[in-house]
Amino acid sequence: MSRSAAALIAELRERARALGFDAFGIASASARPDLEGKLLAALDRGWHGGMEWMRETAPRRARPENLWADVKSVIMVGINYGPETDPMERLADNGLANISAYARMRDYHDVVKGKIKELAGLLARRAGAEVKVFVDTAPVMEKPLAEAAGLGWQGKHTVLVSREFGSWLFLGAIFTSAELPADAPHPESCGRCTRCLDICPTNAFPAPFQLDARKCLAYYSVEHKGQIPVEMREPMGNRIFGCDDCLAVCPWNKFASKAREAKLQARADLEHFGLADLLALDDAGFRSLFSGTPVRRLGWVRLMRNGLVAAGNSGDRRHVGRVESFADHPEPLIRGMAAWALKKLDPERARMRKARALANETDPEVTDEWLA
């Protein structure tokens, strides 16, 4: 590495730290020629579920050069968002509407993008190079590129794992036409540990380092557009947005406290957000409460769909009246999950409600919920 290149990289690293990034590394744009084959194999097996955009963008996602022909190097950065409390303990409280750790704070797209644009601007000025920034908004395979850049390795749960930050890193990418000296890739360091695979309540991992979204609770609670499949409802427990299980049990998380000053903080009101609070929330209240968080993108209807599943799983009959009130809601997603939850919480009340519901029902899926 020339003295000028070394000085540039040192300046970029220092600026990244000042901006609040906890991890920084550089990879060659061509560092992972294996990605295309792995991506296409996963798509052929249908592991993307209903996320058809993954198939549609596969040619651009497979190689950085397919997304931008002029890219020579990729700078990967990460911000630690390790939660203060153990996400697994939250699952035992059926009065809690459990939101994944990353979504109980300001939307990471907004947090990372402003910072990474500033870092990219510095690179462009110093190197006279073109730059493009990406924060989970384009077909970029951030995790394997972060592995190539030395930030960590893709664990058996397919999430990036860091020796310093465990499974809790938000990632961002800077593509540049500058040819920068690359960092050494991080070796896979999971060893014989299978905690992330063993904890999954729905067996979403066909094998280590492989994820089938069609069995993943995070997929169904966040990406899925329809009714929650019957076999996924009880495993969802009180999870209303996302699932942290496989991340939370990673042994490397014990080091994630090293960057407490830099990491993002969860909102106190979402840390203690109750199921009763959720069921009382209307659309306007939803928009106000979740403004600026990833939950906002889900929409009130699908969040309430998830909340009704959680209500059915809670066993708390105090929710019966509110759940029944949703049986006449205009949205089929809500009516269907209300029927299921009511039958779980109060079978006799559901039996008395059934005839009236079926007489007025026009949606076949909701009809099936009452008849099941």
For the terminal residues, how far apart are their CA atoms?
Answer: 67 Å
| Assembly annotation | single chain
Rounded to an integer in angstroms, the radius of gyration calculated over CA atoms is 23 Å
Global outline: elongated
Mean pLDDT: 93
Q: Strand share of the residues?
A: 5-15%
Q: Could you estimate the helical fraction of the residues in percent?
A: 40-55%
Question: How many strands appear in the DSSP assignment?
Answer: 8
Poorly predicted parts? none
Number of domains: 2
Can you list the strand order of the major beta sheet? 1-2-7-4
What kind of sheet is the major sheet?
A: 4 strands, antiparallel
User: Could you state the order of secondary-structure elements as H and E?
Assistant: HEHHHHEHEHEHEEEHHHEHHHHHHHHH
What is this structure's SSE topology?
Elements (H helix, E strand, L loop, with lengths): L2 H17 L3 E6 L6 H10 L7 H5 L1 H5 L1 H4 L5 E8 L6 H4 L7 E2 L8 H20 L3 E4 L7 H7 L4 E2 L5 E2 L7 E8 L18 H5 L17 H6 L7 H7 L2 E3 L3 H4 L19 H4 L3 H5 L3 H7 L10 H15 L5 H6 L6 H14 L1 H14 L3 H8 L1
Parallel strand pairs: 3-8
Antiparallel strand pairs: 1-2, 2-7, 4-7, 5-6
Please provide a written account of the structure.
With 372 residues, the chain is of the alpha+beta class. It has 2 domains: 1-260, no CATH class; 274-372, no CATH class. It has 20 helices and 8 strands. The strands form 3 sheets. A 4-stranded antiparallel beta sheet has the order 1-2-7-4, with helices on both faces. Strands 3-8 form a two-stranded parallel ribbon. A hairpin with a 5-residue loop joins strand 5 and strand 6. Helix 1 (3-19) runs antiparallel to helix 7, helix 16 packs parallel to helix 18 (332-345) and helix 18 packs antiparallel against helix 19. The protein is elongated and about 80 Å long. The mean pLDDT is 93.
